[in-house]
Write a structure and sequence with these properties.
483 residues; rod-shaped; 85% helix
Length: 483
């Protein structure tokens, strides 16, 4: 259970709440305070959540409403272990988050809901949630979330004893982890593949993956960079489990004891912790150390019963049956076997396995449909792109043709103007020459006329003079003739 912040540390928030306006900042303060008081006695947390819900509803603030419902679900899950009520609030919050397309909140709520399904051994419901989460992650291109959900689906197949399905998804998880280049995620994926190989009874191959995982965890732990310290006892336990299944009980007990020692200084999930105690008790039963076995098994059964983890309870009944059988206490052995037999049928049966396979088939079919739709969409976009390119090309050709035509017409116009200008100049020059020629001719005629006039005058003057001289001589002739 998470540790709540001391109430004293909330005084600043209380003071801020008193002066905050009735807006989203007040909702944020109420939610922070509710988280601080979540695990403390009294109804303070629930009252704050009620106020946050009321204000979020009046403001139409979906994120505040989603978070308030989620925290209320956490309250019922962790304080009263009322899983049905917790699921109800988680689902209400999920519906709102999906409507608001708030993917981070959706993935967060998927995680809350998955944990409850695992507690209750409801693997069909868990498979539905994990498949939805994987589809969302693929649609949004979220590689980290894709890796996460392959891990979850691998775990579901593991718990359903489907080694092939489990290994397939864990190896996909490992591929994506390497793509992310995240040491912690790689270590988790190596551990998952190892678990699937254990289920397939390939114990030596499993140990190789588990040891690689353990080295990464310890390297991160020694550098104080392991923010999930519960992974250390988990991988140690799995190595021990692998040795136990391989028949090396003493080595298995050594690793399981290391795992239990780490749980004293690091927090572990209750269902993992129950598993450590139960399998360790089983190993001590094999060693016929019945007192140690009984103590460990009862501790594990107590934890599993408290959290209502059906798988751990089932394993506890089986291990208790083995213990009492070896102790020749057959009444108790029969009682625990009856409990085990009744519970295992509700967790693993043919119908459950078939439905889980159908869910995965539906997911794969939906994924295929999505891929086909995507390809069709890509084809459509490609065709539209080609049409657009063709249109652009045609427009470019048309534009180029218009430019050429316009240029041609412009050049012709310029040439015509130049020709006309030259013709006009020629005409002007011809007019000038004609005018000049006419003027010269006219001048020449005038000169010739003047010359003729002047010549004739001179000639006539000479003639006159000549006649005058002749006239003076004529009477003497005439007088002579008359006599």
């Amino acid at each position: 259970m998470p540790h709540a912040a001391p109430v004293e540390n909330s005084q600043k928030l209380w003071r801020a709440l008193l002066v905050s306006p009735a807006d989203t900042s007040r909702i944020s303060i109420q939610l922070q305070l509710a988280n601080n008081y979540l695990y403390l006695p009294g109804d303070t947390a629930l009252t704050l959540l009620d106020n946050a819900v009321a204000l979020s509803t009046s403001l139409g603030h979906a994120p505040g409403l989603v978070k308030a419902l989620q925290i209320r679900g956490t309250f019922y899950e962790t304080t009263s272990l009322d899983y049905s009520r917790a699921l109800s609030y988680y689902r209400q919050a999920l519906t709102l988050a999906l409507q608001a397309s708030s993917n981070p909140d959706v993935h967060d709520l998927y995680g809350n809901i998955l944990n409850l399904h695992f507690y209750r051994g409801e693997f069909i419901n868990a498979m539905r949630i994990a498949s939805d989460g994987l589809s969302l992650a693929e649609n949004t291109g979220d590689v980290a979330k894709r890796a996460h959900y392959h891990n979850i689906i691998g775990f579901i197949h593991l718990r359903q004893k489907n080694a092939t399905g489990s290994e397939t998804h864990y190896r996909l998880y490992l591929d994506l982890a390497r793509l992310l280049d995240d040491s912690l995620v790689i270590a988790d994926a190596l551990n998952g593949v190892g678990e699937a190989l254990i289920l397939n009874k390939s114990y030596m191959a499993a140990l190789s993956f588990l040891e690689d995982s353990r080295k990464i965890y310890f390297n991160l732990y020694e550098r104080d960079k392991l923010n999930k310290q519960d992974r250390l006892p988990y991988v140690l336990f799995k190595i021990g489990y692998c040795h136990g299944m391989h028949g090396n009980v003493a080595e298995a007990i050594s690793y399981c004891n290391q795992a239990l020692r780490f749980t004293k200084t690091t927090s572990s999930n209750s269902y993992d912790l129950a598993q450590y105690y139960l399998y360790s008790g089983h190993l001590y039963t094999k060693q016929r150390q019945f007192n140690s076995a009984s103590r460990l098994l009862r501790t594990g059964l107590g934890i599993a019963t408290k959290i209502g983890h059906k798988e751990n309870i089932r394993d506890a009944y089986q291990y208790m049956h083995e213990l009492f059988s070896l102790k020749n206490e057959y009444d108790s052995a029969y009682c625990y076997y009856t409990l085990y037999d009744g519970l295992k049928d509700s967790i693993i049966n043919e119908n459950t396995a078939r439905e889980i396979q159908q869910l995965e088939a539906n997911y794969l079919l939906a994924k295929k449909d999505t891929e086909i739709g995507f390809l069709n969409e890509q084809k459509k976009l490609h065709e539209e792109k080609i049409k657009k390119q063709q249109l652009i090309q045609n427009l470019s050709i048309l534009f180029a043709s218009l430019v050429v035509l316009t240029t041609f017409l412009l050049v012709n116009r310029i040439r015509l103007k130049r020709k006309n200008r030259l013709q006009q100049e020629l005409n002007n020059r011809q007019s000038e020459v004609f005018s000049l020629t006419a003027a010269i001719q006219d001048k020449e005629r005038k000169r010739i006329a003047q010359d003729l006039h002047d010549g004739m005058g001179t000639l006539l003057s000479a003639a006159r003079l000549k006649l005058s001289s002749l006239t003076n001589t004529l009477p003497e002739v005439n007088d002579t003739l008359v006599l």
